[in-house]
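Render this sequence as a predicted structure.
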Amino acid sequence: MKILITGASGMVGKNLIEHSAAKEYELLTPSSKVLNLLDKESVKAYLKIHQPDFIVHAAGRVGGIHANINSPVMFLAENIQIGTNLINTAYQQGIKNLLNISSANIYPSDAQNPLTEEMILQGALDYATEGYGLAKAVSTRLCEYIHREDNSYLYKTVIPCNLYGRHDKFDPKHSHMIPAVIQKNSLAKEQGLKTIDIWGDGLARREFMYAGDLADFIYYAIQNFELMPQNINVGLGHDHTINEYYTEIAKIVGFEGELVHDLSKPIGMKQKLIDDSKLKAFGWQHSTSLQEGLKKTYQYLKEQKKDV
């Protein structure tokens, strides 16, 4: 099977490429210079030439709360354009199988946890990531509509919880929480700092899954695609407080200073925990513990620093 992976240079894409199951397929992993998803004609030409049997759509403009708050236009406009260009063009060219990777940001900010797939767009999204969430919701709905118009097209959506892991971004201005905190702890240890700040009171709860586990799920889904629900949450089914993540990361990195709360900073939703009922029924579960995942991610950061 010939599989096109968009976003192959990102964290999810790189974890897909290095997964042990990758060798069973012919993977197409074009750079943005070869396949410009912001240009519909580029998408049309690439798909016509290469004719993939299956598309895993992992591309998108991504970033943490800081980046989303500062650049909402970019996160909304570019992600809508990327998603609709690819999904519409694949449909027009008769590609029957597409797995769209969405985000838990498509769930309402005040929804009752755990978040079920039926809650998509059933209320206002979190203001901090609203642009990104709206764009991902558009792609999710577009996949639903295509399957509704012609059910021979299996265009389905995976809604992962927060991710971290190898090939993550560690710059606090652009990264998500866990890699930013690992980097913050690492620098504090190197510089002999006595304190590290935590945004908010640290009581908000988040669910983070190791990116290698998402890659494992995606290959499982490819092998069982007809049985996969139209929309499916992929995560752990349990969460931790921000304080607990900071404490665990400090242990792994070896930072022995004090964790101080900055109550002036935003915290986003108080909880974002996915319901994993459909995931369990589909027959898959994660295999990487939090401690193991954090150790692997910290090791990856140290390797990157050595290469600089």
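Summary. The two ends are 37 Å apart (CA to CA). The first helix runs from residue 11 to 18.
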